[in-house]
Specification:
The structure holds three protein chains of three kinds. By secondary structure, chain B is α+β, with helices and mostly antiparallel strands. Chain B has helices spanning 50-58, 100-106, 115-128, 144-156, 174-191, 202-208, 226-231, 236-241, and strands spanning 12-21, 24-34, 39-43, 65-70, 73-74, 85-88, 162-166, 194-199, 211-216, 219-224, 246-252, 260-265, 268-273, 281-286, 292-294, 300-309, 313-320, 325-331, 344-348, 355-358. Chain C has helices spanning 2-6, 29-74, 94-104, 108-115, 117-150, 156-168, 171-182, 187-194, 208-231, 236-244, 249-277, 281-286, 294-304, 308-342, and strands spanning 77-78, 85-86. In chain C, α2 packs across α14 (308-342). Classes of the chains: A mainly alpha, B alpha+beta, C mainly alpha.
């Protein structure tokens, strides 16, 4: 690798991780001020664990993430299968458009429009609306991850199974699904983190009693830097690190998680 | 055959070139001296180091020790884009987003050619590989054989002093391969450029090359014209690589005048040519087509277990008394009566065709 | 085959009565097989339809229909009621109800938007920030992705994981982290003042620079990952061939690597640009009162002014701005997926 490439890479990684490093370091800062190092302390983690509303919000977020990721996992896998296997079906262009648009659509638009729908049909806002909203925008991401795996799948394995007498259902559940399972799991994890992270859409479609972790953090953060939030951030980063490790191990191929 | 004095700037010299990947030595102190204008083949199975050696000459790998010189130029430290050497890649590596003409013209930038000269060179190259009119085509629209020819033409565009070809005919089907072998030889002769081809196919090496260099596990074990390697291989490895061969273990007898010696084998005493110390374990190598199989007469006795008709020749398998099998072949139409399977036959081993090789 | 059907076995344990015609109500084994095939292919058709239809129905219902609703509400007026807009369509109002409904709709909100320069400025400023940040990301993302793609096979998965961790880490948290760095009493200013480079703190936070830094930082993984996916699949022999033909590294990059990576570049750029236009968090946390962006305008109309119809009209405006790029994104993403699997061959 040339010197230019290597420096570019180092700089980019430094840029990416500097703020994260700051958060982690200052979560252990006894002093509230950023410019003063008051000594190493884990007091903010203590405050964090005693923060009832924050913990409640974290639980809400986890619940919503698990449910919405499951739905997105199923929908995204179906969509990926349809695109990979059904050839040039009528309306394929619109289908892919419908699948990919939510991935890039500005969140204020999807958040607002979903809320207006829920109000219009009289659906009470809360966990269910959050799950629906998150599943909707995560589906496309799952479809991309699973679709990439499907493209690289060796069809002759399925053909061999069919040749040996297995019907379509047996081929799918016995051969195809096990082979794409790691990518489906990686897609699930991606949808999970996307849901955990969402602030804007949740602010629109959530309801009383369903405050998510980002919503809670945002309300604290608007007032400025908050060491308790630094602690929460550090924990979140660590959690994500573990999840990424799991996802990489599952997909096993370079770039396949994208 | 070797025009070593006519193109001194094309003389490729490898001096104890070595390359290691971790603990594995891919190329082990290989030295080679190629004459200018020569068609040379590096032959060996996959993993023997031939591709690594080629890539070092092209500049894509750096030797850990040793030197590579082309004429007066020391290539060893030069980056690939500054070497007067060009390579034809095994996968052809045609630029998919460019037309054939653009692919061919790519190497001409920086040579100081005018637009007109460039276009003329491209046309001449297309004529050379018989692809006139293909200027605007995209690589994806070409057949395998056509892509191969574009790859060859592109590698010749800069008129390199040395052309390296990495398994150039590997992707072609048999008929096309033979035809292309002839074309490749013709082009090389016409241009007078030194060609170094890397291949695992012995027949191809023999068809193409003035000289062949056989590689085994990173080492160059024998270099010479095809005939020499075939008839007087230096080891059982080389013998086996260039074609089918019968290998019979034995012990070498005393030296005798005339170069023919006795070898004590499980099949009896065989007469063979070669050198070595008396009493050494050796192996007698004899090609199937040199064994003479007849219904009766002098020779080793055995039972014919297979006689396969192969069009221009017949292939025999003879089971000998000690359980070993000898493979023989005879040209057709046969000179005499053809023995039938199950019969007892006599296998004659002509002394001048049998080679003594180290064990 | 038909001969078999005419044979009723003479023994008593046969199901059909001996006097019934051989065909009777029973089907031949050939017909049974055919019927089996038909129902199997019927099964396949149904399951196919289900697999394809499930995501379609969901997305149509929860992605498309909401846009229609938003459109309708953008033609409504605000009201102090639940829900806070008028008119509300009574589903059992009959034709009269529908007529009243449509008469109550108007373009008032759009007139407000057209009249007030705020919205136009916010739109232009949103596009401007998004374009500038995307351009910066292209400039810094390309060498980064390229360096990753050229790394040794041992390092690449590690590098990918290193880029993915920020990608998957909370957006909110990563933006928040910059507050600590950029604010007047923050790390950056403290460091610069300590080094004696500046006398007074730089007002980076609450300024356009803060927004730009935030946008660039937050979206960097979105630029790098799709581009890397394509670059890493390029046949290395292509760049070797370019070098063999005399191209120094720079020329090989610009004539071979970059053109063949364009699908990844386009997908990445749009994956950044489009959401940036409607970005809310970054201008809210890092921008000041002078950084006007449509996402923030929409948010404040909705949450602060409780003017749902106006917020909907702003949403429609935003949607119009991004619909073109969204269509482009779909194209680019499809091409990127082709390139990422095909490997440039």
């Amino acid at each position: 690798m040339s010197l230019f490439a290597r420096t570019a890479l180092m700089l980019a990684l430094a840029f990416l991780y500097a703020p994260i490093g700051v958060l982690i370091i200052y979560s252990f800062n006894a002093s509230k001020l950023v410019t003063v190092w008051g000594g190493f302390s884990t007091q903010w983690y203590g405050v964090l664990f005693r923060d009832g509303p924050l913990i409640a919000a974290a639980l809400v977020s986890l619940k919503v993430a698990a449910l919405s990721a499951t739905i997105a996992g199923v929908l995204g896998t179906c969509a990926a299968l349809a695109l990979d296997r059904h050839g040039r079906f009528w309306g394929r262009g619109a289908y892919t458009g419908l699948l990919y648009a939510p991935m890039v659509m500005p969140e204020v638009i999807t958040g607002l429009s979903l809320l207006l729908l829920f109000v219009g049909i009289g659906l009470d806002r809360g966990i269910s609306t959050l799950v629906i909203a998150h599943a909707t925008f995560a589906t496309g991401f799952v479809a991309v991850v699973v679709g990439a795996r499907l493209k690289g799948l060796d069809r002759s394995l399925e053909e061999a199974a069919a040749d040996l007498g297995a019907g379509p259902a047996r081929v799918f559940f016995g051969i195809t699904l096990p082979l794409i399972a790691p990518s489906v799991a990686a897609g699930f994890l991606l949808a999970f983190t996307l849901s955990l992270d969402d602030l804007v859409i949740a602010s629109f479609v959530s309801g009383p009693g369903a405050t998510t972790l980002p919503m809670r953090i945002y309300s604290q953060v608007r007032l400025g830097v908050n060491p308790e939030i630094n602690a929460a951030s550090t924990l979140l980063i660590a959690a994500v690190g573990l999840v990424v490790l799991a996802a990489s191990w599952l997909t096993g191929r370079k770039g396949a998680a994208v | 055959m070797h025009a070593s004095t006519s193109h001194p700037e094309q003389r490729l010299r490898l001096e104890r070139v070595t390359k290691r990947f971790g603990t594995h030595t891919a190329v082990d102190a290989v030295s080679l001296d190629l004459a200018g204008g020569e068609f040379f083949c590096l032959l060996g199975p996959s993993g023997c180091g031939k591709s690594t050696l080629l890539r070092m000459v092209a500049g894509f790998e750096t030797p850990d020790s040793g030197a590579i010189r082309l004429g007066e130029t020391d290539l060893t430290a030069l980056p690939p884009h500054r070497r007067p050497v060009n390579m034809m890649f095994q996968s052809y590596a045609l630029f998919p987003h460019m037309s054939v003409a653009a692919n061919l013209a790519y190497g001409l930038k920086g040579l100081g050619l005018s637009r007109v000269q460039s276009a003329e060179r491209v046309r001449a190259l297309l004529r050379l590989v018989r692809l006139e009119g293909f200027e605007a085509r995209r690589p994806e629209k070409l057949s395998g054989g056509q892509r191969q020819r574009v790859a060859l033409a592109r590698a010749l565009a800069r008129e390199p002093r040395l052309l390296l070809l990495d398994e150039p005919l590997g992707a072609l089907d048999r008929a096309l391969r033979e035809e292309t072998q002839g074309e490749l030889r013709a082009i090389q002769r016409r241009l007078g450029t030194s060609f170094v081809v890397v291949t695992h196919d012995a027949e191809e090496a023999m068809a193409l090359a003035d000289r062949i260099g056989v590689m085994e596990r990173g080492r160059l074990v024998q270099v010479g014209p095809a005939r020499e390697l075939y008839e007087r291989p230096a080891s059982r490895y080389v013998a086996g690589l260039l074609g089918d061969v019968n290998l019979i273990d034995g012990r070498l007898g005393r030296p005798e005048p005339g170069g023919i010696r006795s070898v004590e084998t499980a099949l009896g005493f065989l007469r063979a040519s070669g050198e070595g110390e008396a009493g050494n374990p050796v192996v007698v190598a004899i090609r199937p087509e040199r064994l003479v199989v007849s219904g009766e007469g002098a020779g080793l006795q055995g039972r014919l277990t297979e006689a396969t008709f192969l069009g221009d020749r017949i292939r025999y398998r003879v089971e000998m008394a000690n359980g070993s099998t000898l493979r023989a072949s005879a040209a057709l139409p046969a000179a005499g009566p053809v023995p039938s399977v199950g019969e007892t036959v006599a296998v004659a081993v002509p002394a001048d065709a049998a080679r003594i090789l180290p064990a | 085959m038909s001969g078999l059907s005419q044979q009723a076995p003479p023994t008593g344990d046969d199901r059909s009565s001996p006097v019934a015609p051989a065909h009777g109500g029973r089907r031949t084994s050939a017909e049974r097989m055919e019927a089996g095939h038909r129902s199997a292919s019927m099964q396949v058709k149904v399951s196919r339809g289900l697999v394809r239809g499930l995501p379609l129905v969901w997305l149509a219902l929860f992605f498309l229909v909401p846009f229609a609703v938003t459109l309708k509400i953008s033609f409504s007026s605000p009201a102090t009621a639940q829900p806070p807009y008028l008119p509300v369509l009574e589903w059992d109002g009959g034709l009269e109800g529908w007529r009243e409904f449509f008469e109550a709709l108007d373009f008032q909100n759009y007139q407000m938007i057209a009249a007030d320069a705020l919205y136009r400025d916010a739109a232009l400023s949103s596009l401007g920030y998004a374009a500038l940040a995307t351009a910066i990301l292209v400039l810094i993302g390309t060498p980064t992705a390229y360096a990753m793609a050229r790394a040794s096979a041992r390092w690449q998965p590690i590098l990918v994981a290193l880029v993915i961790v920020p990608f998957w880490t909370s957006f909110l948290i990563r933006v928040y982290a910059w507050i600590a760095i950029l604010k007047p009493e923050g790390l950056l200013n403290a460091a610069l003042m300590k080094l004696g480079l500046i006398a007074a703190p730089l007002p980076i936070l609450d300024s356009p620079f803060g927004v730009l830094i935030g946008l660039t930082y937050a979206y960097l993984p979105f630029m790098v990952l799709p581009l890397y996916a394509v670059m890493s699949r390029l046949d290395p022999a292509l760049t070797e061939a370019a070098a063999d033909l005399g191209a120094a590294r720079a020329r090989a990059f610009f004539t071979i690597t970059l053109p063949l990576s364009l699908p990844g570049l386009a997908a990445g750029a749009l994956l950044c640009f489009i959401p940036m236009v409607g970005e809310f968090i970054i201008p809210d946390l890092l921008g000041g009162s002078e950084t006007l962006m449509l996402g923030r305008v929409l948010w404040s109309e909705f949450f602060s002014n409780r003017d749902w119809p106006l917020a909907s009209a702003v949403a429609v405006l935003l949607l119009i701005l991004v619909v073109g790029p969204v269509v482009l994104f779909r194209e680019a993403e499809l091409r990127r997926e082709e390139a990422a699997e095909g490997g440039g061959r």
